[in-house]
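Researcher: I'm preparing a figure for a lab meeting and need a structural model of a single chain. I don't have an experimental structure, so a prediction will have to do for now. The sequence is pasted below. Please return the structure as tokens so I can convert it later.
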Amino acid sequence: MEGLGRLFDVSIGCVPTDAVAGAITGKRVSLKNADACTILVVTTGASTDITDVDLQQHTASTGGTTADLDIIDHYYYKSETTLDGDETWTRATQTAASEITNVGAASEELLLAIEVNATQLSDGYSYISLDIPDLGTNGTRHCAVLYLLHELRAPRKPANLVAPLS
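Model: Understood. Here is the structure written out token by token.
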């Protein structure tokens, strides 16, 4: 069996979008069928505005109740003028919060990884999303978000995986 379906599943948080042109509301993903999710954020562009993100939890796939998920006390990132695979991860720490502000350096590409365990969600919450606020007015900063669901509760062939929003 391949890794997709056995070890992990993937869902989109947002397609590449210019966060300098306006805020990005992340799509939701369910943690009902996975014990954890690694959120990956990739940014490119020649903006001098620095990347910020905001982690949310939800009680439903649409609508429901939304609240900050104040669990991010550390994260990892790679930042360089051009991400080309020769970077190493930097571990950053902060007081637990739902927000990360000023990740990486201005005018550099960024790869950001945030870990969320299903047990960290408040009672009654099963969904998460990652929002990116309007980053400013300087140039462009295209951002994409992927959810890597792992520790799958029911590994299956990829075609038989439960939809990540279920």
